[in-house]
Specification:
The chain is built from 8 helices and 10 strands. The protein has helices at about 5-50, 60-65, 70-85, 110-115, 135-140, 175, 190-195, 215-220; strands spanning about 85-90, 95, 100-105, 120-135, 150-160, 160-170, 200-210, 230-240, 245-250, 255-260. A hairpin with a 4-residue loop joins strand 8 (about 230-240) and strand 9.
Length: about 270
């Protein structure tokens, strides 16, 4: 306090010092949160890539030393991973890996069973199947007149019995009618399409985004309502360019990871 300073100025000066202290505290918290998020990203990669073979993460002090972080930052990073369901704390053991994500490539056109064949058996529960009028956006993508009947079906897809994705599929009826007698529970649609048409698939246009699981999807996938899901929209064409399969696939975000190999064109 400055001698002789008027009372109102002293109050204003004290308030200013308090505001500065609060701002500095918030800045420190924000910086720690930023560093915790960065560390969580690194630990997430190690966790999903099998970087902890015994399934147990190093002690907090070891992680702090390895990454040049404070213990508080390490704790916040582990809290983030616990919230994602990837790790859990077990008394007397430490932090252990409890979640697993299965890799789904984005650089090859393959069905789910083909993609995940190394990880187990993919089965399909056909929940809805039959002809239905094509909504305008579907008709436009499949190049059929609006209202034309297409084959629509909904499948719950499981890996080793574990719910993985909910697939909504539209196929032109001249091709789709041949699928009605096929084994949709144990066979990828891609393989069936090539069989019934006698032509290979060519390419697919994809859009991937994160969405919140709606009540229906969450219940079917046995996931918490509002939890994150990966929405993959995919329009697949035959080799001659004809669009034959429009899918809207909701993956459980805690059970799948998307990856690909990209090349820069010049």
């Amino acid at each position: 306090m400055v001698p002789g300073m008027p009372p109102t100025d002293r109050i204003r000066d004290h308030a200013g010092q308090g505001a500065t202290t609060v701002a500095a505290h918030r800045a420190r918290r924000r910086l720690r949160a930023d560093r915790a998020r960065q560390l969580a990203d690194l630990l997430r990669h190690q966790t999903l890539a099998g970087g902890f073979p015994d399934g147990t993460l190093p002690h907090e002090s070891a992680l702090a030393a390895d990454y040049g972080a404070t213990r508080n930052t390490v704790r916040e990073a582990l809290d983030l991973l616990r919230a994602e369901g990837l790790v859990a704390r077990q008394p007397g053991v430490g932090t252990v890996v409890v979640g697993r994500k299965y890799p789904h490539g984005l650089d090859r056109l393959m069905g789910l069973a083909e993609t995940l064949h190394e990880h187990g058996r993919v089965t399909n529960e056909v929940r809805t199947l039959g002809p239905a009028p094509a909504p305008h956006p579907v008709a436009d993508r499949l190049r059929v007149p609006p209202g034309t009947e297409v084959l629509y079906f909904e499948r719950l897809r499981r890996l080793n019995g574990l719910p993985l994705s909910l697939d909504l599929t539209y196929i032109p009826l001249d091709i789709g009618s041949a699928l009605l007698g096929e084994d949709l529970e144990n066979t990828d649609v891609f393989r069936l399409l090539e069989t019934v048409t006698g032509r290979p698939l060519g390419h697919a246009e994809i859009t991937l985004e994160a969405v919140n699981a709606d009540a229906h999807s969450a219940a079917v996938l046995q996931a918490p309502r509002g939890s994150a899901a990966l929405m993959l929209e995919r329009l697949t064409h035959l080799a001659d360019g004809r669009p034959v399969d429009l899918e809207f696939i909701r993956f459980r975000g805690d059970r799948i990871s998307m990856s690909g190999l990209l090349h820069r064109s010049h």
